[in-house]
UniProtKB/TrEMBL annotation:
Reported function: Involved in the final reduction of the elongation cycle of fatty acid synthesis (FAS II). Catalyzes the reduction of a carbon-carbon double bond in an enoyl moiety that is covalently linked to an acyl carrier protein (ACP).
Residues in Enoyl reductase FAD binding domain copies: 323-385
Residues that bind NAD(+): 47-52, 73-74, 110-111, 138-139, 243, 272-274
Organism: Flavobacterium silvisoli
Subunit and partners: Monomer.
Domain Trans-2-enoyl-CoA reductase catalytic: 81-316
Name recorded for this polypeptide: Enoyl-[acyl-carrier-protein] reductase [NADH]
Top-level taxon of the source organism: Bacteria
InterPro entries: Eno_Rdtase_FAD-bd_dom, Enoyl-CoA_Rdtase_cat_dom, FabV-like_NADH_b, Trans-2-enoyl-CoA_reductase
Catalytic residues of the enzyme: 234 (proton donor)
Gene3D superfamilies: NAD(P)-binding Rossmann-like Domain
Length: 396
């Protein structure tokens, strides 16, 4: 079939298999261009199919020749209906890894469930014995709690008072005011259950109990801080409470896995266009100003540049892992540079529908958004008939 983007609000209903494969190839080429990293050898990536998790899997495999197991929750294709992008990304990743002689297998299912944890443990036992790195990179709006059976939903709301600020509809470029009512206690609790650290801790406990964590293994989860303009809706909002919980969980995991010397870290990453971040009000306007400013300074990065730098310049340098005063790894250092943030603050004040194309990188935002679904890549023939029924080699 000929596959075109079909936009519905903040999502695209279609994905292009060849474009997703091109995206994976581009990321592999980037990692290879930066040279080998003396990094992990056997890696489990939870949330491995898109965004930072996919970049972590690619960096492990093509930066350090690591064997990888990827866990994700994606929709497979059906005749005449495309799969989700993460499905095609993972198919392309496995093919590239296998061609390079690297072990790569995947598990498609709900990572919050006991069943998927057990399936993962069984696969590690059968094929790898143990893993020395576990990346935890889930982003989900819902979590079915494996003990209570309750389905929790996260929300993106401020806490304490109503929040009003500028936002942009990145499809139209229309800048407007948005007002968001504050969360109630139930909202806060639910968001922490979904996006906090409980499931990460459950994974690490299950892996350790099964004996599949190597002595001195490392585990990393991803967090975000960001600037003052997004604080009310992000870091001081419901999602921020979940990130506080995630960050606190790192210390608990390190403590509970002392006997095998496993260390848990949170890495604070840069704001990037993903399906998740596009749905948060205010953030797309911030990102469009951020992209413009960082590109002008020559320090713009996408997921792959961020994770390659995380591995190469933070995690696997041969020296102690540098952290901030709260024990977090900071790879958002360039985003948070004072000169960058001062420029964005000034731009924020003046941003309107009329000037955003000029002062912000709306085109870059749109391009990245299309790229998430495999559209807009050079070297892909979008007019050609494409087979949507692409299998992931290790699945079924
Ligand atoms: P993403 O949406 O690109 O990736 C999410 C991954 O989780 C996908 O592989 C998806 O299949 C998987 N997933 C979701 N629900 C699942 C489930 N129930 N079972 C198994 N897999 C499931 O998200 P992104 O942006 O890469 O986020 C990853 C982490 O990075 C999150 O913790 C996010 O908060 C954090 N982060 C994101 C930033 C951004 O600007 N996008 C900035 C800093 C941190
Ligand atoms: Na991810």
């Amino acid at each position: 079939m000929i596959i075109e983007p079909r936009m519905r609000g903040f999502i695209c209903l279609t994905a292009h298999p060849d474009g997703c494969a091109q995206s994976v190839k581009n990321q592999i080429a980037y990692v290879k261009s930066k040279g080998a990293i003396d990094g992990p050898k056997k890696v489990l990536v939870i949330g491995a199919s898109t965004g930072f998790g996919l970049a972590s899997r690619i960096t492990s495999a093509f930066g350090s020749d690591a064997a990888t197991i990827g866990v994700f929750f994606e929709k497979e294709p059906a005749e005449g209906k495309t799969a989700t992008p993460g499905w095609y990304n993972s198919a392309a990743f496995e093919n590239e890894a296998h061609n390079a002689g690297l072990y790569a297998k995947s598990i498609n299912g709900d990572a919050f469930s006991n069943e998927v944890k057990q399936e993962t443990i069984d696969l590690i036992k059968a094929d790898l014995g143990q893993v020395d790195l576990v990346i935890y990179s889930l982003a989900s709006p819902v979590r079915m709690h494996p003990v209570t059976g309750v389905l929790h939903r996260s929300v993106l709301k401020p806490i304490g008072s109503t929040f009003t600020n500028k936002t942009v509809d990145f499809h139209t470029g229309n800048v407007s005011q948005v007002t968001i009512e504050p969360a109630n206690e139930e909202d806060i609790k639910n968001t922490v259950v979904v996006m906090g650290g409980e499931d990460w801790a459950m994974w690490m406990e299950a892996l350790n109990k099964a004996g599949v964590l190597a002595q001195g293994a490392t585990t990393i989860a991803y967090s975000y801080i960001g600037p003052e303009v997004t604080e009310a809706v992000y870091r001081k909002g419901t999602i921020g409470r979940a990130k506080d919980h995630l960050e606190a969980t790192a210390f608990e995991i390190t403590d509970s896995l002392k006997s095998i010397g496993c260390k848990a870290y949170v890495s604070v990453n840069k704001a990037l266009v993903t399906q998740a971040s596009s749905a948060i009000p205010v953030i797309p306007l911030y990102i469009s100003l951020l992209y413009k400013t960082m590109k002008a300074e020559g320090i713009h990065e996408g997921c792959i540049e961020q994770i390659q730098r995380l591995f190469g310049e933070r995690l696997y340098t041969g020296n102690a892992i540098p952290t901030d005063d709260k024990g977090r790894i900071r790879i958002d250092d360039w985003e948070m540079r004072e000169d960058i943030q001062n420029q964005i603050k000034a731009l924020w004040e003046t941003a309107t529908t009329e000037n955003l194309n000029e002062i912000g990188d709306l085109a870059g935002y749109k391009q990245d958004f299309l790229n998430l679904f495999g559209f807009g890549f050079d070297g892909v023939d979008y007019d050609a008939n494409t087979n949507e029924m692409v299998p992931i080699p290790s699945i079924k």
